[in-house]
Amino acid sequence: MLTDTATGPAGSQAVRETNLGAVLRAVREAAPCSRADVAATTGLTKATVSSIVGDLIAHGLVREVGAASERRVGRPGVMLTLDGRGITAVGLEVNVDYITVVAVDLVEQELLSRHEPFAAGAAGPEACARELVDLLRRTLADPVLAGRTVLGAGVAVPGLIDAPRGTVANAPNLRWRDFPLRARMLELMEEAGLPEMPVLVDNDANLGAVAEYRGGHRAHTCDLVYITGEVGIGAGVLLDGRLLRGSTGYGGEIGHIPLRRGGPLCGCGRRGCLEAVAGIDAILRRTVPDLAPTAPVSGTHLAAAVAATVERADAGDVGVLRALERAGSWLGRGAATLVNLINPQAIILGGYFVPLAPWLLPPCTAAVDAHVLAPERGGCRLEVSTLGLSAAARGGAAALVDALDTGRLPLPPRRPLERPRQEGARPNGRSPAR
Amino acid sequence: MLTDTATGPAGSQAVRETNLGAVLRAVREAAPCSRADVAATTGLTKATVSSIVGDLIAHGLVREVGAASERRVGRPGVMLTLDGRGITAVGLEVNVDYITVVAVDLVEQELLSRHEPFAAGAAGPEACARELVDLLRRTLADPVLAGRTVLGAGVAVPGLIDAPRGTVANAPNLRWRDFPLRARMLELMEEAGLPEMPVLVDNDANLGAVAEYRGGHRAHTCDLVYITGEVGIGAGVLLDGRLLRGSTGYGGEIGHIPLRRGGPLCGCGRRGCLEAVAGIDAILRRTVPDLAPTAPVSGTHLAAAVAATVERADAGDVGVLRALERAGSWLGRGAATLVNLINPQAIILGGYFVPLAPWLLPPCTAAVDAHVLAPERGGCRLEVSTLGLSAAARGGAAALVDALDTGRLPLPPRRPLERPRQEGARPNGRSPAR
After folding, report:
1. ipTM confidence score
2. What is the mean pLDDT of residues B407-422?
3. Rounded to a whole number, what is the distance in Å from the CA of B2 to chain A's nearest CA?
4. Which residue ranges have biased composition labelled Basic and acidic residues (chains A, B) (predicted)?
5. A92: pLDDT strictly greater than 90
């Protein structure tokens, strides 16, 4: 079990849904496996497992795949595996300069991914909600997803999120305050004629951490921190495989820890926050001031400015190299704070930090080494994400699959009865006479 | 369930001990309560509960106290309560300038508490281990504890602790490195002829948090941070009622987060750590430089210097007030970092911060307000401990009681059969003929 996002079962359905989730997880982890294997893993009776597996097959989540291997004694059983064909979960991210969508199937294989420049920072929350719903509509209309049932949409936003309510309390770099994103999206989705589906809203760093935990290069690392590299810097913290949310859901705000007294102004209105000295905007203002003569850079296309920074650093521009060195060092001081307080196994840098990593990571690592009390950084690895700018959106999709796995999402609708596909089956679906 | 300290049951005993713990916790929470109440709370069968209660009575942990209240229907049952008479748990703390002991009974009532000046910072680990064992010996010999079985000793040390091994990895302010404190204490205890007992070693801030959680003014606050106010500053972090230890046990090192670039030298050898600008030593060097002309102050009696600081602040000494204001503000920046990352319900300042709180707390709170992104500090209260300098030792004792409660400590030996005490019972213990 990983996350604790929004929805959860209640009342008499709860036990059944918890058991459904347990069976689904057991199949995910051990597939191909028999019903008896699942009963052994979950501790449920064989009768319960058979009944649940029947449901899962009917809803298109699990399928049978031939007989057990020959090593088994006695009558060979039919094996089970997850059914990747009928389901999709969609993750979306809105950030200062882009929106992203990722659709995955039940085994979290990526079906589709789009990254579109969008000046969300300037557009305001209403326009962003419309853009997100439009991107969702276009995604669901994509032939790649044809015939798939949508589990729901998980939306990543850089800011303080009241996840249970789906409300954005404060997103400084988007300039949103108390915006009920889920409620507004649900209205717009109905207007657009989209099918009903659950919508989760969560912090981008939290969802990035979920994506890393479920499918990054350090997947299943239990004490893991994902750091977003955008205009803002956020931390998604997994402790013992569970998201650290804090008592009111506002944990992980590493971007606004006070690092430099009297330092530069931050998007949150304070001075010297980590993201004011090491966020992408702060970096670009020093490395490509000519591309963005007025601060903040956020209104422009960050991707192009980041690419220009990489080019100049590659060319050995001393000013650029010095600015990256300084930013990496501040980032390391922030990361050292995390390591001293939380002692994780890995910190993974994401977003725009990825292309800048060749220059940021060495001074960052040196600063962590210099400021962590525990020997050898308490065993913490400092690495770069392999998921790039799609991590948070991917995490939004993964969080929905996780919610299904843990019985916190209702099953998708039953699928119409489908005859087994056979070579030479007639177009009307009936098998030829034998 | 609260902590996860050192010992744990293994093998075939495990289930029985887990169930014993569950019954003990149920009685602790609901006493007076019947065996049937315990069965209902724990989900165990009445037969199992009866058998376990029999054991707990025989070992002097639970006792019967008359009949159920009249509100109950049917035959009145005998009620159970914890037996505070036969057991004690001992907590010890060694810190830079003192050692402390607290003994509690099974209901965590304080039986005895001693606080002794001791220049531990100068004495070295071997002398400290001897002093701790001698204090333990004197404590167990105290008439107040006569006839009680000792559950064990829990020892608090300011530093990075490998709790499962009972080793102090690094205690900068004591100048200890890789000292096997538990092993050494067990040897010395055997030499001194003390009874065999488990010894737990843990970080002072962790044990302070345990003490606050189990018996402070914010007891049972699930997301709680305790900050030690000694030469060093440490944080004990409880999330969801569980200690945040981190992946290698080195979490909570708030004292060494880098706050001030190029700031004053810290005991750990780095510069600008929180405790180098807001630890008690740093404060005293500015408020009472005449009492300790050479830095660090730690060799002298901190208590007297703290008292002198309080006196001068009370008298309105401008330099002293300014130094306390500055230290409080740095402390607030450190606390803001915790609030941004962890979003706790309460931060409780302990140790020598308690007498200095009238001057430290206002600038500290102002700095937290200034540097936390979440509205209203994410609901976090900033308060002063009511447990004073005995918090960590108290937590050492409480951690043992908690280990018993959660089936991670073996039961103490069975008590000799005791006849019910009656008015007029004859000295040989036999009841008079009826």
Report:
1. 0.85
2. 67
3. 15
4. 415-424
5. yes
